What does this fold into?
Amino acid sequence: MFSDYGSAMNTLFHGVLMLATCAGCYLLWWGVAFYPERHAPLWLSGILLVATAVCGIMAVNWMSQGIFQTEGIRKGVSGGWIMAGGVICYVVLLVISNLVFHRMVTTELFLIVGWAVLNLVTVNTLYASGLFSAGISVVF
It folds into this structure.
C-alpha cells in the first residue's frame, strides 16, 4: 500500500499492521485467561501472551524505524512535546485511578498510554511527511 512512498512509509505501515495484530492477540489472550469457565488449556494462554509480546515488540521496532527514517517536508509537533504530554497523561490517569476510583493500577494503563503516544507520533510523522493534511491529522 505505501510502497510508492518509500521504504520508511512501508516500514511504518508494517509496524501499524503488527500493532493491530498485537491488539488482536491481546484481546484473544484476555478472553482466554479471564474466563476460566470456558476451560481453555493453560498452554493456549501462554502462547497468546507470548504472541502478544512478540507482536508488540516488532510493532514498536518497525514503527520507530519508519518514524526516524521519514523525511519531513513540513514542521509537525515536536516529538518531545508528545512524549511530555504522554507522561503527564499517565500521571493524571494514575492519580485518578488510584485516589478517586481506589483501583489498583496495572501495566495496562502504561501500555494504553504508550500505545496512544506511539500513534500520535505516527500521525504527526504522516502529517510532517505530507501524507496527511492538518484536518485528517486532527481527526486521527
